[in-house]
Amino acid sequence: MGRSNSGKTTFLEKLIRELKQRGYRVGTVKHHRGTFEFDIEGKDTWRHAQAGADMVALATPTGFGLVKKLAQELSPEEITSYMPGVDIIIVEGMKKGSQPKIELVRSAVADAPVCPVEELMAVVSDLPLSLGLPRFGLDDFKGVADLIENQLIKSSDTAQGNVSSLREDQLKRYHRNIMLPGVGQAGQLKLLNSSVLVVGTGGLGSPVAYYLAAAGIGRLGLADADVVDLSNLQRQILHTTADLNRLKVESAREKLSKLNPDIQIEVYPFRVTRDNVADLVCQYDLVVDATDNFATRYVLNEGCMAAGKPFIYGGVLSMVGQVMTILPGKGPCFRCIFREPPSEDAVKSTADYGILGSVAGIIGCIQATEAVKYLLGQGDLLVGRLLTMEGMSMFFQEVEVKRDPHCPDCGKLE
Ligand SMILES: [Zn+2]
């Protein structure tokens, strides 16, 4: 985009805010000929970050971000490899490559675009240019956001076979989601194109799966080997008395597809083990731990760290619950905190101590909230923050936990 000293950064700040408001994750790259300086107050990169960009990089002759020396202009492939998981990367000052370009032409600086017209998809200008291209005024960041959304994002979603627009009934079903800041129709589409594996369909899995299904997570996986027992019904609200002795995943699928026929539900009526964990987690964007046993939790933690899959841990016993969000390589994993599984006879379960159903409900609801935030790329996640609730005193406590560089599951991740 455009030349320097042309009001470009001000325009970009508005565009970044607009795209964030529409629920997109945004990356920016600034090409700069001077020395490498990152996050200096008032500089362009600092302003991009202040405007809400999720990832900001500065590319100079001496460095790119904090990781790479740069002898020449970066290729689009190099830039995307540095910014995984963002929807839009706005690159300033890039000349080569066939990526869509929008040039800012301000009358105080120039009277025509620098880039050849055939390489441009639009211009932003205060001049009445007639180039046979869409032209936007200097205040029309919304128009540019529309162009980006319609011509770049939605067309690439369609090419990947994803849901690219909401039907009338979906606009109504998800209206209360769409109204939320940082969600919008784009955020709802993101949820509909997301997938979550919920391991366990009991006390935690019930609220997790119910709320994720209701929120419109497009593909839900449910793993559980158990059948419904009478003693489960005091807390496992996906199942009813009529479901006794049925597979829990079948009972769960029936309730969830009645709640939301819009979503796809896959069921795995077996235990997650070392042998199958890799195959399972690689099919999903995110994994929620709603298990009731340590053995499966350690298997899941190891499998998710190896596959680089985010993982939301939850555990409950008696009147106490715990929850934490684990982003591989970015925060501590379950094993950074609890290195070795407890010995068999030291393990206490809800069968020994009981559990109040609503306590599992609270923790499950927090897990579902974290899952939606992660998928939207919004908010502050419980990464490195082990949240504990004690239901009898209704006391919530957050403990800061750190990565263990010697952790066998995640110590080697970057
Ligand atoms: Zn770890």
CATH superfamily of the largest domain: NAD(P)-binding Rossmann-like Domain
By CATH, the topology of the largest domain is Rossmann fold
Low-confidence stretches: 66-71
- Structural class call reads alpha/beta
CATH class of the largest domain: Alpha Beta
Spatial strand order of the main sheet: 10-9-8-11-12-13-14-15
Q: How many strands in all?
A: 15
Largest pleated sheet: 8 strands, mixed
Molecular shape = elongated
Strand content: 15-25%
Q: What is the correct CATH architecture of the largest domain?
A: 3-Layer(aba) Sandwich
CA(first)-CA(last) distance: 32 Å
Write the element-wise H/E pattern from the N-terminal end onward.
HEHEEHEEEEHHHHEHEHEHEHEEHHHEE
Provide mean pLDDT, rounded.
86
Number of helical segments?
14
Number of domains: 2
Q: Which molecules other than protein and nucleic acid are bound?
A: zinc ion
- Rg estimate, integer Å: 24 Å
Question: How much helix is in the residues?
Answer: 25-40%
Domain Molybdopterin-guanine dinucleotide biosynthesis protein B (MobB): 2-126
Keywords: ATP-binding, Nucleotide-binding, Transferase
GO molecular function: ATP binding; GTP binding; nucleotidyltransferase activity; sulfotransferase activity; thiosulfate-cyanide sulfurtransferase activity; ubiquitin-like modifier activating enzyme activity
Protein name: Molybdopterin-guanine dinucleotide biosynthesis protein B
